[in-house]
Amino acid sequence: MTIALRIICSFALSLCIALLGQTRAANAQQEPLIKPTEEHKLLQKDVGTWDATLTIWPMEGAEPMESKGTEKNELLEGGLWLASRFEGDAGGMKFAGIGTTGYDPVEKKYVGTWVDSMTPHLMLTKGEYDKATETFTGTAEGRDSFSRQSYTAKIIAKYIGDDTRTFEMHMPGENGKHFKMMEIRYKRRAE
Questions:
Q1: CA nearest 42: which of 117, 136, 167?
Q2: Is the pLDDT of residue 162 over 50?
């Protein structure tokens, strides 16, 4: 390779590297194509670490079982999705779960997913938020791990100030009517 050709190749390589760097810098400064809506901004309220007290009624009329846990929530880059990780104890066994929550602007509903260490099935949630009562109400579509039958649970999540919130899940009982199967009381940890 001649010296002239080496110089030209070296210049071309340097030019490509410089242009690539400028393109990346320009892309980093661009606004995201999809911006969070006002509904997405509500997800910010859940960001942080929360201490949780769970009360579970394994069946209608059963004595409640109580346990403790911790939930850590963060917004993904772009602010469209809240990612949650829950760790705790359920009936003396370690328990872990991961959820996502976002807002679907086409359906005009909050949507989510849930998976955990005790269930081999994905749960899908969908609901609405009432600003006046600071309450989410919706449904959770899942499958019973033992009977393998699909179910639709009712879910209610309520904010009580900035540092306290509750979550309830009401499952269909044997008579077809929903009963409160779980309640979680959350307190935000001071950062």
A1: 136
A2: yes
Whether pLDDT at 31 is above 80 = no
Q: How far is 173 from 23, CA to CA, in rounded Å?
A: 58
Looking at the DSSP bridge assignments, the partners of residue 180 are: 170
In this predicted model, which residue has the larger pLDDT, 59 or 2?
Answer: 59
Tens digit of pLDDT for each residue in 102-123?
999 999 999 999 999 999 999 9
88 and 79 Cβ atoms separated by less than 8 Å: no
- Element holding 29 (H helix, E strand): helix 3-29
Residue 63, beta-bridge partner list = none
**CB contact at 8 A, 113 and 82:** no
Summarize the chain as % helix, strand, coil (round to 5): 20, 55, 30
CB 169 within 8 A of CB 137: no
Contact 167, 184 (CB under 8 A): yes
